Amino acid sequence: MGMHPDDRTPKPNSARFLLARAICAASTWTLTHVLHRPAANFPGKIGLYVDPQLIAHAQTRLRTGSVVVIGTNGKTTVTNLIADALEHAGMTVACNRTGANLDSGVATALLHASAVDWGVFESDELWFAKIAPHLKPTYVVLLNLFRDQLDRMGEIDHIQQSIVHALESSPQTMLVYNSDDPLCQAIADRTKNACIPFGIGEDLGLAPNTVVDANVCQQCDTSLEYSWRQYGQLGAYLCPTCGFSRQEPQYSATGVTLGEADGAITVHCGDRSAQLRTPIAGTYMAYNLLATCAAADLCKAPGHAIAKAIGEFHPHNGRLQRFELDGRPVLLNLAKNPTGLNQNLRIVTSQPGPKAVGIFINDKEADGHDISWLWDADFPELAADDEALVFAGGLRRNDLQVRLKYAGIQAPIVQDARDFLAQARGCTPPGTPLYLIANYTALPLVKNQLDGMHHMPEPTLPPIAPAMEEPLSDAGRHITIAHLYPELLNLYGDGGNVTILEQRARWRGISVKTIRLQRGQRLALDDVDIVFLGGGPDREQRLASEELVAQAESLRSFVEDDGVLLAICGGFQILGKTWILGDNEVAGLSIIDAQTKRAEGGSHNRLVGNIALQSPLATAPVIGYENHAGRTFLGPGCTPFGQVEGRHGHGNNDTDGVDGALYRNVVASYLHGPLLAKNPEVADALIERALARQARRKGLPAPQLLPLCDAEEHAANALMRKRLGLS
């Protein structure tokens, strides 16, 4: 039988619990002594199967209470720092230090511990709802919320709702949250739990990121106004309509100076303040240190213990871990989403002089199979550093190489960390710093290779990096692109399609003007050649659709005049007669003959995965990634963009085996990636159609585009074809 929700301390001596303990001990011994593998998850997984109330039973071992750390970025670092601070204060701690953050990891950490003062646990954001009702934590530290693993996590609204429900299941838990993040502030405003905000109390003067995850008010959908913005959506914000705003932090930071090698931060709480020194790199660490101070202080750790933990923190888990090989400083760090990667790039570009950067991107289950987030990273900032040499590694190294190419970076392929180190050694001066950035599953292999090295590998001759395209003989031509509502509609790196169109035109000597139409601006398309319309979260899509409905005639006239329009996912749906907003069907623009209907099971019944198409716009298979809940059906006025190849994708509705729509010069599709990254023929077809329309208006013959070298794009396409078993 399940526990009554009000029973906080179930009896820990039940037969199931005792059996779970015995199995945990046996499996831990076998894993560590026989199989020589970590015992961070499996013992707890088996234990929870035997005793579903295992966490509730085992939490009675925590004499004082527990702290759970959640948030997109920084969980492992903050969890370890809090545990260190409490241990320096003489307290005993149970902690899942390796980052095993599902319920099985928390259960394992509890079973491995004897009676202790505190439990300090990292938790995955969605799994927190399964952990909280049993653990009943004293404090929950919410660091930040960014887009991450959209094929698993879903939209941020879903994560917020899950966290609020988890807090409802443990009403005595206190929420310690980052009030600089409007997405975290919205959770604090919705919960009845006691809340303590923390935040940075001054403008750090950082350049804004290209893409942020929250532009509109969480309460009334008005665009937020900022006094300052640190990075992403973090900063001092205010809604001018309803007053939604950043709560004044109870724990605040000033005097923030965090360079690559060391830094300082002054933390304030009421009339108390303390200056802390840290060897940790990166401006984003200011929030991690502030969260650590707040949580450790609430757990009654004295200031000297907190200062010692921060001052002596030298991670050995691949997060901000330092090495030295043959006199070269090496920094390894994790980056698993655009915000984390952008902060890593800031660490690299903040250091003057030559440097080499190896970026390793995998797409395994724990990473998220969709890597379109790479197109939201600020790689042009890295391209502006003339002294940085960049290399592409990991299972998706070819896709990364394509992304870097369109940012203006020639990035040779490397097979692994050893290959990167050998190539970097062969083309940089002695003592040149090296940076290795890896996403979740790529990190352990990179770390293991670095751990096993005492000397740099012998230099190898680097492969010839592809030369950047030189302008060809289409000079004198010009195209204008209108990117509609990029601040609202860019959920899956869709804006990368615009970058690709711009670069492929410029590489041919065609000048490009891009108009990024913002909310509230008039849609004027008389001199526009190509319109791009992406997809977004439900709230943002609704706001964009309201703008489009009010100006539908302008867009309809553009289409009927054979203007080129590329629409992805939500943008594709909005163009039809009906589309899905949340779980409801609403009227669309009726520009194309298509209807999108609600799937059985609602928004959780999604069509997700890699997809391959045969399309009339390309001779090679069109490769991309789909992630949508709506089911779209074409009328006789539209033909499909492509036929799904075999079982390699779902398409519009998982029934008729086709994706997207073609109508006049409209190309609509569910394919992310972005669509054009691995499919240059489709990109060139759009540019060619735009130039042909120009020529027809002037009574001139339609031009033909000169070819470009697409070796990188073809290699990325071929890699995914091979994975899908296609020729």
> For the residues shown, what is the average pLDDT?
88
Structural class of the helices, strands and pairings?
Answer: alpha/beta
**Ends apart, CA distance between termini:** 54 Å
Q: DSSP strand (E) fraction? A: 15-25%
Strand order of the largest sheet: 2-3-1-4-5-6-9-10-11
User: How many H/I helical runs?
Assistant: 22
| Total strand segments | 30
Shape: globular
Which ranges are low-confidence, i.e. pLDDT below 50, for 5 or more consecutive residues?
A: 1-9
Question: Radius of gyration from the CA trace?
Answer: 26 Å
Sequence-ordered SSE layout with sheet pairings:
Layout: H1 15-34, H2 42-50, H3 54-58, E1 62-70, H4 75-88, E2 93-95, H5 103-112, E3 116-122, H6 128-135, E4 139-142, H7 150-153, H8 156-168, E5 174-178, H9 182-190, E6 195-200, E7 225-231, E8 234-238, E9 251-258, E10 263-269, E11 272-278, H10 285-298, H11 303-311, E12 321-325, E13 328-334, H12 338-349, E14 355-360, H13 379-383, E15 388-393, H14 397-406, H15 417-427, E16 434-438, H16 442-451, E17 478-484, H17 496-506, E18 511-517, E19 530-533, H18 538-550, H19 552-560, E20 564-568, H20 570-575, E21 578-581, E22 584-587, E23 594-597, E24 607-614, E25 622-628, E26 631-634, E27 642-644, E28 658-659, E29 661-663, E30 666-669, H21 680-697, H22 711-723
Parallel strand pairs: 1-3, 1-4, 2-3, 4-5, 5-6, 6-9, 13-16, 14-15, 14-16, 17-18, 17-19, 19-20, 20-30
Antiparallel strand pairs: 7-8, 9-10, 10-11, 12-13, 21-22, 23-26, 24-25, 24-27, 27-28, 29-30
